[in-house]
Amino acid sequence: MNRRKFLLAAAGGLTVTFSFGCALPVIPKRPRPDLSDAASWIRYASGRYLLTVPRVEMGQNVLTAMKQIACEELAIEPNALAVEMHSTAAIRRARATVGSESIKDFALPLAQACATLREAIESGAGTGMIVARAIPQEALRSFARTARFVGKAVAVEQAREIVTGKPLYASDVRRSNMHFGRVLRANASPELRSTAISMDELAAAKVPGFVAIVRDALLTQGRSEGIGIVSRTPGALERIEAALAIRWQTETEFDQSTIHQAIDIDRRTINGGLSNKVHRETLDLTRPWDVDIRIDVPLAAHAPIEPRVAVAELSGEGRLEMWVGSQDVFYQRDVIAKRLGLGEQNVVVHGMRVGGAFGGKTICTVELEAAALARASKLPIKVQWTRAQEFRHAFHRPPSSHRLRARVRNGSIEDWSHQFASSHILFTNAVLPPWLQRLTDFIGDDGVARGSTLPYRALNKRVEFDLARLPVFTGPWRGLGAGPNVFAIESAIDECARAANVDAVAFRLRHSVVPRMSRALERVASAANWGRALQSSDPAIQRGRGVACGVYKAMSYAAVVADVTIDHGRRTIRVDKLWCAHDCGRIINPDQVRAQCEGNLVWGLGMVLIEELRVAQSQIAATTFLDSPIPRISDVPPMEIVLVDEGEPPTGAGETAIVAAGAAIANAIRNATGVRPTKLPLRYEYLPPRT
Amino acid sequence: MCESCTPFLWVAMMFLKVNGRTRDVANEWCDESLLWVLREHLGLAGAKFGCGAGVCGACTVLLDGKAARSCLFAAREVESVEITTIEGLSISGSLHPVQRAWLEESVSQCGYCQAGQIMSAVALLQSNPNPTDREIDAALDGNLCRCGTQQRIRSAIHTAAKLARGGA
User: Fold this and answer.
1) Which of A164, A189, A214 is the last residue of a domain?
2) What angle do CA A191, A100, B57 make, to 5 degrees?
3) Cβ-Cβ contacts under 8 Å, A232 against chain B
4) Three-class DSSP labels, A558-584
5) Chain B contacts of A579, Cβ < 8 Å?
6) What is the CATH number of domain B11-88?
7) Contact B105/B156 with Cβ under 8 angstroms?
């Protein structure tokens, strides 16, 4: 048997405790995967290969992509390779599955480890572990044009299990004698201090299925005290909650206007510049501007269809086993081990397929609830958040407010100013207490800045932003700041093209400083037959086309064309068709890159036309999908994807097209109606009356 | 406590007809929703919890052949009903045309909503063997997908219609 002995992970999280009782939060570790890590991902025994995927599967179908690479290098058929998700006991520490970096950073070491294993087997190596060799990329089969599996459509891993209803997700886990838990909190944002002042424990205990009420400091989330309940059946939790009738005391209050005022860009700039600089050239502020628009983007939810869920089971020997639907399996282990005072070696966390994450399942919330309830009740416990808890206890895409100004002379951008205000993303208030978050004010927040670098030529540029801690939790959402920032930029660039009286594609190509973005733009313009005029003979119907493009994390490129119809009779805005050109370098699985593009286009559509999370009475107002809708099948138009692969190294596809999709739709609405969408989401009733 | 399902104290239970089989349901589960009984008591994890309010469609099953939200029914309300879940779609290992179409079109991303989508599609094709895009949208509008697989769901339903017409 050939195998690389897997090493125990490095030392645990920070353990400093302050005299005022405030422990430093555990910070996720982000090691770069290397060859010795990769050796722990692949094993061989008696003709069978096992690939333990160091990434979390949440719909990007990374299990399939990594299987393609492994089969390519091992020169084996897919049915000779078993693929499994990772637990903290199975492989060396792998960092969170975030940032569209699984292929970019993990493909090469995986290919090298598998190629080394193939060489060893070919040379008759026996049992033991082998040291993976740093084989250069050009010598690997996966990156050659002659690849058998890479670059082809292959059977998708776990697809058959999905369509036959097999258990795959943390919510599907069942343990012997498993009970159900929930943690009750005040009807207030967890950012506000709230405590239970009374409850009817006798009434709760009479509910059939009642097992326990748990009070434990570990159940505090943010500054919200949690009261745990445990029951024999899941439905009994509702009845226990009703019978318990907890009365809560909550400090301070806020509403929607609190949020608006905190990030209102025009209030922020009254006293001059903003604290974080992306481009810091000096602009002439005395002359008039040719373009001057304000863009406001609201709070939005991740809205995964699988609400956060975890199962925890404590064994007699003080070992804790957990099953999670998290983007960061090792981080869950670190936090649980530290908060419960268990050694890392006593906590094993199994990563299960995740029912949608989109940046939201990156911190430890429901996992800690399940672990604390399992410890208190000495029972295996499943906790799955209700939909209302998903909206009210999770963190969200921060709202942002943008002021964009430009001067255009002789068809060229002379001055560019983009000022914006938002709340934290990487340094999320869902994890960091205010005093610790303030330290980050000096270093900004790369998540908020993402996508704000101008990919166009301008003589003078000023791009700067402010961060405000809001009374609701904000954090990473698909594309982080890049969605809203590129939406704002591409809206203003469209206005610049109009000011210059130049075609929107030609203007972008003339100003682009990113050749691969230009190439994507040319490809999408050709696919959509850009320049073709849209006709409408019905006076109640306006039609329009728009284009936008963008760069994600300086690695992937997208351009989108949108056709829209404004129907004044039905009072609707409809997207009729979307075209997208996408370049993430060498493509491992074209069909799944296409699927990621489609998903991103739907997210862009939702962002511009549908999604908004409102605040009322000191918390997120939404409790159901009716209060915070997401795109439905009837909202989704036909989509045509053009994949660009000219052989550059592989990057990522999970969050690229969203940067261009929203603005292309907004620019099409502008083209159809003459009205610039400035406040999202744009609904028909927000359009000014026709003149 | 459930009155209709406690004929004898020592066999306190009720019966459900699930995927052509009669299944015992213990007394303490009678007041639970059909979804929780299927998932947590009978171990049929295909139907998913998404909202608990009948809004997202992830828990869709067939009740006497009609698509229904299993989170909205108490188990005891469906005692005399033929319940079909996604686990009951394939017959002796051979996939239903809708399941085959879902694989052919590589519909799933995260996959969590897909059991509900598939059950709604099966119900649609039973009443309308050759639906238009517009009819598909109307029938599936209550099945939410966050990953953005809607275009593929549409084409998979057309594919399934063809597979069903072509037999086996």
Assistant:
1) A164
2) 65
3) 28
4) EEEEEEEEEECCCCEEEEEEEEEEEEC
5) none
6) 3.10.20.30
7) yes
Q: What is the residue range of A243's domain? A: 170-251+308-384
Residue of A305, A353, A600 with shortest CB distance to B146: A305
Q: Label residues A277-313 b or e (16+ Cβ within 10 Å = b).
A: ebbeeebeeeeebbbebbbbbbbbbbbbbbbbbbbbb
The reply to whether residue B148 touches residue A356, judged by beta carbons under 8 angstroms, is: no
Pair of tokens at residue B32: 């639970």
Order of strands, sheet of A81-85, starting from the edge strand that comes earlier in the sequence: A42-45, A48-53, A81-85
Same domain, A504 and A563: yes
Q: Residue B52 in contact with residue B114, Cβ under 8 Å?
A: no
| pTM passes above 0.90 | yes
Q: Is A88:A6 a contact under the CB 8 Å cutoff?
A: no
On whether both A145 and A217 belong to a single domain, the answer is no
Given A168, A233, A624, which is nearest B36 (Cβ)? A233
Which of A73-82, A425-434, A480-489, B33-42 is the least confident region? Answer: A425-434
The answer to whether the Cβ–Cβ distance between B55 and A626 falls below 8 Å is: yes
CB proximity list for A561: less than 8 A, separation 6 or greater = A524, A525, A527, A528, A530, A545, A546, A547, A578, A579, A664
Q: In this structure, is residue A390 part of a structural domain?
A: no
DSSP secondary structure letter of residue B78: G
Same domain (yes/no): A527, A652: yes
pLDDT digits (tens, 9 = 90+) for A567-590: 999 999 999 999 999 999 999 999
- Percentage of residues in chain A having pLDDT higher than 70: 96
Predicted confidence (pLDDT) per residue in A122-150, tens digit? 998 767 888 889 999 999 999 988 999 99
CATH of the domain at A192: 3.30.365.10
Q: Residue A356 is nearest to which of B41, B112, B150, comparing CB atoms?
A: B112
Tell me: do A206 and A75 sit in the same domain.
no
**Distant-in-sequence, close-in-space partners of B132: CB < 8 Å, separation ≥ 6:** none
Q: Do B140 and A592 touch (CB under 8 A)?
A: no
pLDDT exceeds cutoff 70 at A9: no
Residue A20 inside a domain? The answer is: no
Domain count, chain A: 3
Percent of chain A with pLDDT over 90: 87
A342: left (phi over 0), alpha (psi -120 to 50) or beta: beta
Q: Coil, helix or strand for B114?
A: helix
Confidence of residue B12 (pLDDT cuts 50, 70, 90): low
A81 shares its domain with A182:
no
Residues A424 and A316 both lie in one domain? no
Does A391 reside within a domain? no
Residue A244, token pair as written in the block: 């318990």
Give me the residue spans of the domains in chain B. 11-88, 97-165
Q: Classify domain B97-165 at the CATH class level.
A: mainly alpha
Segment A37-65, tens digit of pLDDT:
998 999 998 889 999 999 999 999 999 99
Instruction: Find, among A238, A35, A64, the residue nearest to A591 by Cα.
Output: A64
A382-A384-A389 Cα angle (round to 5): 145
ipTM of the prediction: 0.95
Q: Which residues of B touch A386 (CB under 8 A)?
A: 52
User: Residue A647 contacts by C-beta under 8 Å, 6 or more apart in sequence?
Assistant: A145, A585, A586
Q: Are A619 and A259 in contact (CB under 8 A)?
A: no
> A interface mutation test: which of B6, B59, B92, B112 has the most A CBs within 10 A?
B112
